[in-house]
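Question:
Write out your own:
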Amino acid sequence: MQNTVVPHADWLKARLELMEAEKAFTRQRDELTRWRMALPWERVAKPYLFETPDGERVLADLFGDCSQLIVYHFMFGSDWQEGCKSCSFWADNFNGIPVHLRHRDVAFTAVSRAPLDRLMAYRKRLGWSFPWVSDRSTFSIDYYGAFPPEDLAKGETFWNYKVQPNTTSEQVGISVFAKNDAGEVFHTYSIFGRGVEEVNGAYHFLDMVPKGRDEDGLDFTMSWVRRHDQY
């Protein structure tokens, strides 16, 4: 694999043309961010319950002393022995992030339906330190990180804001919540599918190199991914 080789002046001309497009994309992304920030909120009415290393907690407790909360829906079903390998690829980006988020009034946690002891054992195995809690209610289903058996039996579920074919009990996503001074919790944003790629630093690095992600021709785009202790 080799692209066209040119003198430096020609390379610089091509790079500056691309830079103009990159700057336009950055401005558009900034505008999307402002649009996202201005979205209306919806009240969270259910008393969702989670198992944490510090005991049972409700959703409002996961904020700690922050007013904003990011939840990563980590695919790890209640009867699974390992977490999803693709979610594990994403999770390799999370260590060290929560302390920085807290300084911008944001708490972070992963949520899965597997029992807490299994989550903690898997976290230890892969050397992670980010918060991770076990969903003991319908939180994952209500926010489309998981699906009830009756929907899966139909071969389609409502996910990424439309009904579509699906036989997978778990799906990846990110949901964002806010809490006011009265302790009320609101759902402000969720994103699924390729939108979750925004938090995967490895993919962004791969997008810079000549081969890119090099996933064309694979059975499916992420078939090359392994848990980092299985390569």
Summary: Strands lie at 42-43, 49-52, 55-58, 68-73, 106-112, 132-135, 156-159, 162-165, 173-179, 185-192. The chain has a mean pLDDT of 96. The first strand starts at residue 42 and ends at 43.
